[in-house]
Amino acid sequence: MTTDAFPTRRGRMEYVCTQCGARRGVEELLYTCPECGGVFLLEDLDFARMKERPAEEWRTRFDARRATRNTALRGIFRFYELMAPVLEQEDIVYLGEGDTPIIEASPALQKALGARFAFKNEGQNPSASFKDRGMAGAFSYLRALVRMHGWDEVLTVCASTGDTSAAAALYASHVGGGIRSVVLLPRGKVTPQQLSQPLGSGALVLEVPGVFDDCMKVVEYLAEHYRVALLNSKNSWRILGQESYAYECAQWYGWGLAGKSLFVPVGNAGNITAIMSGLLKMRELGLIDELPRLFGVQSHHADPVWRYYSRPEGERRYEPVRVRPSVAQAAMIGNPVSFPRVKKLAARYTEAGGDFNVVQVTEQAIMDAMICANRHGHIACTQGGECLAGLLRAKELGLIGERDFAVLDATAHALKFSGFQSMYMENAFPPEFGVTPRPELINTPRLLITPERRAELNEAEFTAETARELARAAGLKSR
Q1: DSSP string for 122-190
Q2: What backbone phi and psi angles, to 5 degrees, belong to 85?
Q3: Is 265:411 a contact under the CB 8 Å cutoff?
Q4: How many CB atoms lie within 10 A of CB 349?
Q5: Which of 269, 383, 263 is nearest to 320 (CA)?
Q6: pLDDT in tens, 31-62
Q7: Which letter, b or e, does each residue of 7-30 get, where b requires 16 or more Cβ atoms within 10 Å of its Cβ?
Q8: Which end of the chain has fewer CB atoms < 10 Å from its terminal CB, N or C?
Q9: What is the DSSP letter of 92?
Q10: Cα torsion for 226, 230, 236, 237, to the nearest 10°?
Q11: pTM exceeds 0.90 for this model
């Protein structure tokens, strides 16, 4: 099979409203339904034709593309036919996103926690988070629109808690050609590491007092009244790009997800939407024989989706919540824009034989889990800690058995959230977080020799005395 050849098959795609079912063509970028205001999902009208080929042929094709030299097919678009089969090769943006590794937890960590699991390290994407998957989808479609309509200039805009802005600014600066980036951030709610990224990429970075939900209202209003490309998860093309996470999980395990449980932070609900959508597509085509169990995880400081699903089915009512400070900043969203998508897809997921759950965890549990994971050789961010806390909570509730194996979404690189780790080690969390460090997890630097003592010693004395102090600190015995 030729792996470098770009696919010849093209589909016919439409926006489908999750609320009223209205359909619209994809010749323009739409975010919400003009009929009822509901959010869209994208549908390939010719998807059923993929069943004309056996599932094994599709699996072989997708596997072969992992070795391609064609950059348009190296990343998330090696699953081209499953995602956006209307794009041309010239439009696809590739910055090295996708194909992130799944690293099994160390034996010591699994034994200590009594759980079998692995982290999918999304921090190894170009801007160091999973948001690059969605931006590759959104910007590829945007390039197609620019070419189609002959636009000279496009302004992209997004609200962000950090990772979305970093990814949006990076892809906009790479694509160029009249595409400019504006990001709106809640002042003081983005880590310094995350803030540095859109600034470094040259985006126009604007801040407002408040939280992410306030920023989201502003950019939604902007998208309704001005010609801008909104890059938040209301953008259905972002959801398509993020489906690749599900395809990669299946591919990593040889297209067998039986006995697996996927844990995903809910946040704005775009990622869990995309993963459900991707899993359902694979099940329909027979690429996987069984749907994995799927768990959304929310902090008790921002838990509207957990509150909805924690009630009996006949009593469920969705209500936004007022968020409180959270170390899982990407999850600090009180009114996820993709909740209608989650609600619709979760119903389909259970009808197809899948198991969907949402668990709630504390801020204390998130930080303890993140530190514990990284103490055992991982690079989990606070959202990765949230997923590990979610796994432990599911285990406490009897939702996970000893034979289950969990794949946890570590959505970003740990270095983006190193400030929270420092606060943990220094016991410096403000009271509103409700985090008290566990003494056995605290690790701080220790001074071997004071500057004053150093000044009293010559070089040979300094070397010998410092070495002795190091040996004493490390518990070494002389030879």
Answers
A1: GGGSTTSBTHHHHHHHHHHHHHHHHHHHT-S-EEEEEE-SSHHHHHHHHHHHHH-TTEEEEEEEETT-S
A2: -75, 40
A3: yes
A4: 20
A5: 269
A6: 999 999 999 999 999 999 999 999 999 999 99
A7: eeeebebbbbbbbeeeeeebeebb
A8: C
A9: -
A10: 120
A11: yes
